[in-house]
Design goal:
- With 238 residues, the protein is of the alpha+beta class.
- It contains eight helices and ten strands.
- The chain is globular and about 45 Å long.
Length: 238
């Protein structure tokens, strides 16, 4: 499992409270602003287009999306957002990568270090865990009515791995093919809820049930933090 409880995470997101939805919108807005700094034209900025598509999939109002793009274009709020990855040692030798978007890296690092410490984990030197992972493309499709046909279509477009859960499909791609495969699946009228580059573990660390559950609890807490864009681990249940 490369991403924390991928299917559970998607289903959990559908039942969030208004308070949590506000946090999610804030994170999506930051992601759009970061992406828009590479260009505000969605026809040429694939990263921005995917960030907007993901926000729309979460029912984020279009006015909020437009304001996030305008913030990047005008740099009008005076804040400096930056994205970074925090490497951390998890339980029993497992590794964590925490993707952060923040306007104050010292504050974010301090708060996340405390959360890690409260659960028996700790941050490590920058880059010290990233060699355990490799970058891949990841696409999620929802509301699939014919899983078998969807898998065949994904294979035809060049998918390297496929996983499914009832009406949802995960498609793993080479990083260079993410854009082309996403567009091909869109042309086939599939409902794509996210398309992004992610870090996939080269090898997995098996944890006993109690430790794996503790790590999952920590990852949920980290993902609820306002500055965290995503958490990846190489831990799997034994």
């Amino acid at each position: 499992m490369s991403k924390h409880s991928k299917w559970a995470k998607i289903k959990r997101a559908k039942g969030v409270t208004d308070v949590k939805r506000g946090v999610i919108f804030s994170k999506l807005s930051r992601n759009i602003t970061i992406a828009a700094r590479e260009g505000t034209d969605v026809t040429t900025n694939f990263k921005l287009r995917m960030a907007i598509d993901r926000a729309l999939a979460e029912n984020m109002p279009k006015d909020n999306i437009e304001r996030a793009v305008e913030r990047a274009a005008k740099n009008e709020d005076g804040t400096t957002l930056e994205s970074l990855t925090i490497d951390a040692r998890g339980l029993s030798g497992s590794a964590l990568l925490i993707d952060v978007v923040t306007d104050n890296r010292n504050r974010s690092f301090g708060e996340l270090r405390k959360l890690l410490g409260d659960h028996g984990c700790h941050p490590t030197e920058p880059g010290s865990m990233q060699w355990l992972f490799e970058r891949r493309g990841q696409i999620f499709i929802e509301n699939v009515t014919d899983i078998e046909q969807a898998e065949l279509d994904a294979i035809d477009t060049g998918a390297s791995e496929i996983d499914n859960d009832e009406t949802m499909l995960e498609v793993i791609t080479n990083p260079e093919q993410l854009h082309a495969i996403t567009e091909s699946l869109k042309n086939k009228k599939y409902q794509i809820t996210s398309s992004e580059l992610m870090m996939h573990p080269k090898t997995s660390i098996a944890l006993a049930e109690n430790e794996y559950n503790k790590l999952q609890e920590l990852m949920e807490i980290l993902e609820d933090h306002a500055d965290v864009a995503g958490v990846t681990t190489n831990a799997v249940p034994a």
